[in-house]
Amino acid sequence: MSDIFIRNYPPHLDAPLTKVEAKSIVSNPDNISCHPFFPFLQRNQHWTKYADKGKKPDKKTRPIRYAARRDAYIFAHYRKILLPLYERELQNLGLNECVLAYRRIPQAKGRGGKCNIHFADQAFSKIREIGNCYVLALDISQFFENLDHNQIKTNWWRLLGKPEPKRNIAILPDDHFQVFRAVTNYSFIDRDKAYKTLGLIGEQQSASGLKMIKYTVNRKDFPKQICTPNEFREKLVDIIEHNPNPFGIPQGSPISDLLANLYMIDFDAEMNRLIRSDGGTYYRYSDDILIITPMGKKSWNDILSLTESVLEKTAPRLMLKAGKTQVYQYTTSGSGPDQDNKKLNVTKGADGVEYLGFRYDGKKIYLRNSTVSGIQRKITGVANRMARSLVENNPTMSLQQLNESFKYDVLIAKFGRVRDFDNSITKYKSWTFWTYIKRSINILGDLGSSIVRQVGNYKSFARNKAKEAIEYSYNRRKRMPQMP
């Protein structure tokens, strides 16, 4: 565990700890067996789902729960214990190239680990290799929220070699059981409620008269431990919430990703066996499943029904999200490797299957429309915040002065290339989103050459959004009653 994890952890209910202190906690399993775990802190991650033009986008919320420092170190320690055992099982079952998320899969020639770009490239290359094939992109509904606790415990027990051999039930060692219980029978506190209760955030009035919820403490002075033990008992106990269900684990704990993968191991093994028997390929990246299988073996409806059946038998409580199912037929066109695609399950949809942030139409690879719109939303959000701050802090400036004072270069540098795109440039340390674009093109090669055109106008987009945001904040300020 790195010092960065210990020192730069977000503010929480417990105090910062040193590496020596952290190691002493996990050095004795008896310490873990009676360790009192704090509630998780929950923050809600908001985003707007991509929608086709003319449709109103849906606003989505995902709760992210992160553990107190000592608890997180314990979770990370037991993940470290379980991970090599899980990796060994994947190797034994022939799943090393099928299960992609939350693992380090090395690149060829020792050049670091693979990322989602490599996995997408691998999948699209397999589609081109097979030629005439069906491709099914499937999504599991509410993955972390529905993991059955008994199955988690049973698979955990199996991974440890089935301790307590005289009893044919899953009994974990005391220290492992305490960690299991902390991540299943968990409690949590809404972070913003806690901050408000403790007076760390509250309603404030800006110089222009606008009322808004803001931090009452400067960032540099924000406490690493948000409350004392007495304050916790007196002020926060009443807002603790508990998971009442025999299913679900918190997304965000250091061990949750491994437990989610472990939960699916029987499903992965059976699906890989069935798809490979037809000459196809099976991949799973967390809750995203991709199946590529030659035409002429089974119909796509049979493959979909088979997947649902295996999921029901091997992964209790999990179901496919019908609205996210994509089924495509790819057929070769002419003598080259290029293909034509046809969407089979619905009449509308993207031109080509979408997978891990990319789309393949049979000839070229593109960024998903939602990926591009997501970047545009982020640019818009940052432009709005920068413009609002500029207007609030300069109440006497005219609209023209505000436009001239706005730091457009700062906004642009946050998301894209600092200078115009140039294939010869190889130093990307100062780049942000453009680093990802450059890396995508390098990995995807000629098939990904169209990606540049998708994002080439981001500079003008950023400038226009900044000007719109300045004008909106300026006009809003003018409408506000002036303070005496």
Description:
With 484 residues, the chain is of the alpha+beta class. It is built from 18 helices and 14 strands. The chain has helices spanning 3-7, 19-26, 29-33, 69-93, 116-130, 149-159, 174-184, 191-197, 229-236, 256-263, 265-277, 300-314, 369-393, 399-405, 408-415, 433-444, 451-455, 458-479; strands at 40-48, 59-66, 133-139, 187-190, 201-205, 211-215, 241-242, 281-285, 288-294, 326-332, 339-343, 353-355, 358-360, 365-367. The strands form four sheets. Strands 8-9-3-10-11 form a five-stranded antiparallel β-sheet. A hairpin with a 5-residue loop joins β5 and β6 (211-215). The radius of gyration is 26 Å and the shape is flat.
Describe the strand arrangement of the main beta sheet, using strand numbers: 8-9-3-10-11
Main beta sheet: 5 strands, antiparallel
Q: Can you count the beta strands?
A: 14
Counting H and I runs of at least 4 residues, what is the number of helices? Answer: 18
Average pLDDT confidence is 87
Oligomer: single chain
Q: Separation of termini?
A: 55 Å
- Rg from C-alpha positions? 26 Å
Structural class: alpha+beta
Helical fraction: 40-55%
Low-pLDDT regions: 418-431
Task: Describe the global form.
Answer: flat
How much of the sequence lies in strands comes to 15-25%
